[in-house]
């Protein structure tokens, strides 16, 4: 499996995927700075304001659309590399290929999360000042990454099955569904809403971008372990289901 992952990583060397790891976090951080400048200085602690703005938009926009784009780029690169013809020429397990792609995509999104944290820190040192809320900074970033993992096999399956347009369409539908479901009681049944919903108690911001009062039900921290446990289970389940689908598709 390690060799398969290394092989997958080589395919994406010097591709747009590597640039997306850096450009996507920088875009959202730079987008938050102008908004921050128009808000009164005494409205909220500058660091919290910056983190709230970034972590509100990041799961709403990048997670659904970014995952869809990552998956589409992986499938596009696979077509350039031979469109799985190597499976027929060598004794390679299709399931291993599929799981290695999921691992690589999870790794890329993890690196994107690291870049996001660094970008927030750099911009915060320039525009915020004061005490850094380390807990919100790291908890928000890594919780978003963790609970978004189930979207990887979903989007990879969509891109492999029907191509880039279908993958992006699923991502756009997921964006809308996630925003609508996040503040509702049925949020747990919509994977695209998990990151947005869990940010409510972590950063204290409603999915629509407004600050939550201390007594707001959306601040209930019990959703955090519930969402994390659900995401891990669903990620493993979706990975197994899609690997079986991919194996059947490639051996035909």
Automatic annotation (TrEMBL):
The keyword Membrane applies. It holds the Pfam family ABC2_membrane_4. This is Lantibiotic protection ABC transporter permease subunit, MutE/EpiE family. The chain crosses the membrane at residues 56-74, 95-128, 134-152, 164-182, 228-248. Keywords: Membrane, Transmembrane, Transmembrane helix.
């Amino acid at each position: 499996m390690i060799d398969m992952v290394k092989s997958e990583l080589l395919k994406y060397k010097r591709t747009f995927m590597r640039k997306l790891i850096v450009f996507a976090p920088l875009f959202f951080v730079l987008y938050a700075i102008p908004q921050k400048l128009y808000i009164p200085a005494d409205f909220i602690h500058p660091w919290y304001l910056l983190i709230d703005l970034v972590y509100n938009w990041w799961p709403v926009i990048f997670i659904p659309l970014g995952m869809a784009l990552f998956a589409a780029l992986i499938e596009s690169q696979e077509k350039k590399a031979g469109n799985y013809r190597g499976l027929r020429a060598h004794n390679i397990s299709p399931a291993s290929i599929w799981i290695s792609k999921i691992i690589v995509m999870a790794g890329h999104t993890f690196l994107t999360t690291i870049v996001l944290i660094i970008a927030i820190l750099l911009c915060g040192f320039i525009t915020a000042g004061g005490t850094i809320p380390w807990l919100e900074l790291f908890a928000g970033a890594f919780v978003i990454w963790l609970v978004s993992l189930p979207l990887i096999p979903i989007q990879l399956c969509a891109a492999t099955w029907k191509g880039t347009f279908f993958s992006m369409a699923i991502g756009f539908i997921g964006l809308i569904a996630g925003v609508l479901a996040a503040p509702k009681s049925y949020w747990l049944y919509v994977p695209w809403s998990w990151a947005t919903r869990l940010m409510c108690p972590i950063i204290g911001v409603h999915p629509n971008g407004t600050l939550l009062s201390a007594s707001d039900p959306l601040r209930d921290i019990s959703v955090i372990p519930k969402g994390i446990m659900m995401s891990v289970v669903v990620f493993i389940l979706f990975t197994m289901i899609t690997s079986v689908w991919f194996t059947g598709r490639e051996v035909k």
